[in-house]
Amino acid sequence: MRGAGLWQLGQSITRRVAQGDKKAVARRYFASEAELKKTVLYDFHVANGGKMVPFAGWGMPIQYKDSIMDSTLNCRQNGSLFDVSHMCGLSLKGKDSIPFLEKLVIADVAGLAPGTGTLTVFTNEKGGSIDDSVITKVTDDHIYLVVNAGCRDKDLAHIEEHMKAFKAKGGDVSWHIHDERSLLALQGPLAAPTLQHLTKEDLSKLYFGEFRILDINGAHCFLTRTGYTGEDGFEISVPSEHAVDLAKAILEKSEGKVRLTGLGARDSLRLEAGLCLYGNDMEQHVTPVEAGLTWAIGKRRRAEGGFLGAEVILKQLEEGPSIRRAGFISSGPPARSHSEIQNEKGETIGEVTSGGFSPCLKKNIAMGYVKSGSHKAGTKVKIIVRGKAYDGTVTKMPFVPTKYYKPS
């Protein structure tokens, strides 16, 4: 399932369940339920009213008893707890783990201070994006990273292939895939005060992008101050046998203000924050420069290259790309993935990759790719939805201001 359809899917399921048509929901969305992988929290989701759908080979909650609109607003006002255990965490270890990883990603990994991380992109030989990932330098010989669920198989095959070649030349690097751990994302204004009840570590000293290994609710966890909503928050890698207890403790300590939240609201939150969804806003043929992620290419990497597709990417940095990712506000019905974008003369200049109605702004928002020159804020466009042209304006992202916790 592609992410741009999550919001519509959630609305469709809600309507059908409200109409009492649960058999139709089961037929349409759960036909392959027996084949789906389940996170440790699956039964917990169901017990709490989670509406489960197939996503990237997993059975995941798209929403709970509240609407996607309400869930989105509650995350911004209070907080949300997401089960993101379908994503793949892994560790690279060995004295050459950093030079090995730098062959595959655009980040200046060596330049990271221990205990800090960054968003990066795995590239291919043509400079295209294999996947985006948050990577953390735990120590000089231990890198922790999380890759997308839908990209897991190709990412692991890609890393393994290059690791074999690297080790054959004497490189010291090995890996461990953390299938014994689950991943929870706690996001929103109450994330830090709620989590503080469950750990002795002073979370006020942990800033956006930083990482710690510490005890939370009696379990040995990896904690990263990051997230996918634009809000302050954390991703918590917890041993799977402690995942349900930790989820219950977080909900309890928030006194019901932090709510379990599904993929539908996660999609609208990340769109409001102007964040890419791989498979929609990033693909194997799209470079990090075209995707607006130039900032993620380390200064040293720009000077030295040394990563897959560097020649293509460094040329785009010098000459500018032919297309660029841009944000849009539009009238009429919300734009969806593959909606055509035209200039005021009616000429096609690009297409939408993600779009929907913003619960926070009460406006239609979207992102997509347009020809360079048409990407500047304030540019008037037409967006084609169901055969009709509607007015749109190129708008700076994020649409909703981010609230990452950084030193003042």
Question: What is the architecture of the domain at 3-86 and 180-272 at the second tier of CATH?
Answer: 2-Layer Sandwich
Our Rg estimate from Cα atoms comes to: 21 Å
Alpha-beta classification? alpha+beta
Strand order of the largest sheet: 11-12-13-10-4-14
Give the fraction of residues assigned to helices.
Answer: 25-40%
Can you count the helices? 11
Q: Strand portion, in percent?
A: 25-35%
Q: Give the biggest beta sheet.
A: 6 strands, mixed
The CATH topology label of the domain at 3-86 and 180-272 is Gyrase A, domain 2
Look at the structure and name the CATH superfamily of the domain at 3-86 and 180-272: Probable tRNA modification gtpase trme, domain 1
The stretches of 5 or more residues where confidence is low (pLDDT under 50) are 22-31
The separation of the N and C termini measures: 40 Å
The counted number of beta strands is 20
The residue-averaged pLDDT reads 94
Shape type: globular
CATH C-level label of the domain at 3-86 and 180-272: Alpha Beta
Domain GCVT N-terminal: 41-299
Keywords: Aminotransferase, Mitochondrion, Transferase, Transit peptide
GO cellular component, one term: mitochondrion
Catalytic activity: N(6)-[(R)-S(8)-aminomethyldihydrolipoyl]-L-lysyl-[protein] + (6S)-5,6,7,8-tetrahydrofolate = N(6)-[(R)-dihydrolipoyl]-L-lysyl-[protein] + (6R)-5,10-methylene-5,6,7,8-tetrahydrofolate + NH4(+)
